[in-house]
Design a protein that fits this description.
Number of strands: 17
Structural class: mainly beta
CATH architecture: Alpha-Beta Complex
Oligomer: single chain
Protein name: 5-carboxy-2-oxohept-3-enedioate decarboxylase HpaG1 subunit
Pfam families: FAA_hydrolase
Domain Fumarylacetoacetase-like C-terminal: 37-242
Largest sheet: 9 strands, mixed
Distance between the termini: 36 Å
InterPro entries: Fumarylacetoacetase-like_C, Fumarylacetoacetase_C_sf, HPA_isomer/decarb_N
CATH superfamily: Fumarylacetoacetase-like, C-terminal domain
Low-confidence stretches: none
Mean pLDDT: 88
Keywords: Metal-binding
Radius of gyration: 17 Å
Amino acid sequence: MYHYRIKKHGKVASLQVETAGEVPLENALLPAVNGAVIGVALNDKTLYNSLEKQFNQKPHVSPPKTPVLHIKTDNTHIGYGDTIRIPTTMGAVFAGPSLGIVMGKKACRVTQENAHDYIQGYTIVNEVSLAETSFYRPAVKAKCRDTFCPIGPWVIDASDVDNAQDLKISTYINDELCHETNTDQMVHSIEKIVAYISSFITLEVGDMIIAGTPLRTESLEIKAGDVVAVEIEKIGRLVNSVAAE
């Protein structure tokens, strides 16, 4: 089952359909969710391992033991087909392909064992960011700029995804494959993420967790004029153009 948020005649509506083809994607310009969006940093094994030396230096001394969180504020949220607007005077800007975990029930202090019961389904996220200098304290200025969080084009029911912890994620820039990863590269599992966040934040229906982005190398750099697509196995494809602010 696919869940859409579409805008028609100036009004926002939600649709549920059995197949993606029943609703034209050009109608899916709104983000697929409308709740709070919480991101998990340092949740990719390659990224985590690349910072191991820094973790053991001052002021940190040791690697983080629990998920490191950040937010993507409402102004960042856009949908399929909308335009990512990037600054041209602040250095490189990177795509951030990730699985989006969408809550279907109010979750407060849930356990890892029952965390999956609170998940409605999954969507695709492009967690766009400027280059970061601190992963322990992700910079709001780098992550929370307008249009820096495309989400969509829909939410697919969790029951339709056999194993969300083993999904291939592919990123294309101008139709060229530039990056591949898999959700099996998460440092912290989906269940652990939901349990940890809900231990001190009550997650509401429609809230979304960004499961984690890979190491941002030059292959993920985006520029004005590009078209970037993030594709996740069994979920779909999120496409957005890129333009200067």
